[in-house]
């Protein structure tokens, strides 16, 4: 035997290593949703005759309708083409069960009835619809929940306000319509100019809940990029142009852009059809409306957004919010804002610590609309 030849043992080891690597890769790809579903198909095809044999041997413990179990699992795990193979095996199992059980059944004995066939067929149809939906969306069920969770967390992270220097306090609370996890309201924020400036954008996308969530997710990423990269006066025009390019059927949004100097307390506020902000002046103890002028985002090109300027003195508070918090079909905007400021007065002595969430609970707990509230206080 020459020195370059491989021994049978070495060839067997290499073949075993390749087979093990292929199986491991197939398993990893499958559970990631990227690979073939042959592993799940093989397991379910083995389950079908096992259930059929158990039904024939122990009909009191395993009824014929037990075949819906692999069918339901197949609807969640398999592609439509593979699911048809599972259905064929299940149909063959039902025929075998009927051939064995029905002639032997007497009185109340277990048998395969037309009702049994209808139940299995109905579950199979439902499983096929689920599989076709997953195939059309392109997201396997194993990753669908993870993807939604990841999207929700991304929105939540983007909505977090950056830490502010001593002497400042900020809070943000978001509550989607109907108790859902996704909202049409979102916030993007950043500290710019070496941390000396706080820029915050609060946006209310048309629609509510899940209907607006996909657009809110897209816009939150699109708005977060240029925030701080563009001059403040150029941000809303750029956002307006972006919405116009999307050409959505219901593509408008309201937005407010706050640019706050953390050293002096001076701020500029730009508005795109958004509700006015409310500022509590510590010197007078009264709330004042801060309304900038500008049209809705995504309505027409060349829109201008004129800012309003102000200053947060020590003890002052600025509230920005969306319409779901203060406006309902039973309550107009003025009444809602009066109620909000009345509830907010209760938190003045506590420095508005933990106030944002409690204010939403007190003012608009059961409102079927997205609600968002941003508080910035200077101590």
UniProtKB/TrEMBL annotation:
Keywords: Hydrolase, Membrane, Transmembrane, Transmembrane helix. The keyword Membrane applies. The chain crosses the membrane at residues 38-69, 112-133. InterPro entries: Bact_Sigma-Reg, PPM-type-like_dom_sf, PPM-type_phosphatase-like_dom. The keyword Membrane applies. It comes from the Bacteria. Residues 169-378 form the PPM-type phosphatase domain. Gene3D superfamilies: PPM-type phosphatase domain (3.60.40.10). PANTHER family: STAGE II SPORULATION PROTEIN E, STAGE II SPORULATION PROTEIN E-RELATED. This is Membrane protein. It comes from Streptomyces hiroshimensis.
């Amino acid at each position: 035997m020459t020195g370059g030849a491989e021994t049978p043992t070495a060839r067997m080891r290499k073949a075993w290593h390749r087979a093990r690597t292929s199986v491991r890769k197939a398993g990893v790809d499958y559970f990631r949703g990227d690979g073939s579903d042959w592993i799940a198909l093989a397991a379910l095809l083995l389950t079908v005759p096992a259930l059929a044999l158990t039904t024939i041997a122990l009909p009191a413990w395993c009824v014929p309708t037990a075949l819906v179990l692999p069918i339901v699992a197949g609807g969640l795990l398999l592609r439509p083409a593979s699911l048809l193979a599972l259905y064929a095996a299940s149909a063959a199992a039902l025929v075998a069960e009927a051939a064995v059980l029905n002639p032997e059944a007497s009185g109340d004995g277990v048998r395969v009835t037309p009702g049994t066939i209808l139940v299995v067929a109905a579950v199979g149809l439902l499983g096929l619809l689920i599989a076709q939906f997953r195939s059309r969306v392109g997201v396997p069920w194993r990753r669908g929940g993870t993807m939604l969770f990841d999207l929700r967390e991304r929105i939540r992270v983007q909505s977090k306000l950056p830490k502010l220097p001593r002497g400042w306090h900020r809070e943000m609370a978001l509550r989607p319509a109907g108790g859902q996890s996704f909202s049409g309201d979102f916030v993007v924020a950043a500290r710019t100019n070496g941390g000396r400036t706080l820029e915050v954008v609060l946006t209310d996308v048309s629609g509510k809940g899940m209907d607006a969530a996909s657009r809110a997710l897209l816009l939150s990423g699109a708005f977060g990029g240029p925030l701080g990269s563009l001059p403040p006066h150029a941000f809303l025009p750029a956002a307006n142009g972006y919405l116009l390019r999307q050409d959505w059927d219901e593509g408008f949004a309201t937005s407010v852009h706050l640019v706050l100097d953390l050293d002096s307390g001076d701020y500029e506020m730009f508005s795109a059809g958004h509700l006015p902000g409310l500022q509590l002046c510590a010197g007078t103890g009264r709330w004042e409306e801060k309304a900038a002028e500008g049209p809705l985002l995504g309505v027409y090109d060349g829109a201008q957004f004129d800012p309003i300027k102000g200053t947060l003195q020590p003890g002052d508070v600025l509230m920005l919010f969306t319409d779901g918090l203060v406006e309902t079909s039973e309550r107009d905007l003025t009444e809602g804002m009066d109620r909000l400021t009345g509830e907010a007065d209760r938190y003045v002595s506590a420095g508005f610590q933990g106030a944002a969430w409690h204010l939403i609970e007190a003012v608009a707990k059961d409102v079927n609309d997205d609600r968002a509230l941003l508080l910035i206080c200077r101590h």
